[in-house]
Write a structure and sequence with these properties.
By secondary structure, this protein is α+β, with helices and mostly antiparallel strands. Helix content is about 20%, strand content about 25%. It is built from three helices and six strands, in the order αββαβαβββ.
Length: about 160
Amino acid sequence: MKNKIGWFILSILIVTSLILASCATRTTSTTPKSTSTTSSTVTSTSTAATTTTTTTTVSHWWDKFGTPQYGGTMTFATNSFPSVFDPYNWMGLGSTCFEQMLTPDWTLENRSIVLSAFIPDEYWKGFIAESWEFSDPSTLVIHIRQNIKWQNKAPVNGRAFT
């Protein structure tokens, strides 16, 4: 009997604390943003008046890369066939959310693929990739479709994929 009363009191305390915690005001901690400040001082000789001009510019981490330049080379190494640029997606966790560079063409006869778990070259088709070629055995050149954009979330905010 004492055991049941003890559990009942404990459960009432837990429920009460959860209700009080959910009714509490929300507190957020703020961290100062990174800003670069330029200041200059100009002094007039006639009446010794001092004018101070302060210019504050907010810079983002991606500003250091400049404007996008289309084309070029992206060099990276992997131990598997890269279907996407994001290593998170190579694990298969994000493949339901993001388009991949290449995808198997399941409209072709694929009985041998299912049995062997190996996808031959002729069964691949482009998803984001328009075309691709091996310039040598260790270099894969992927030509990306036009007007591809990143997702509209920070930090990429829907920018063009270049």
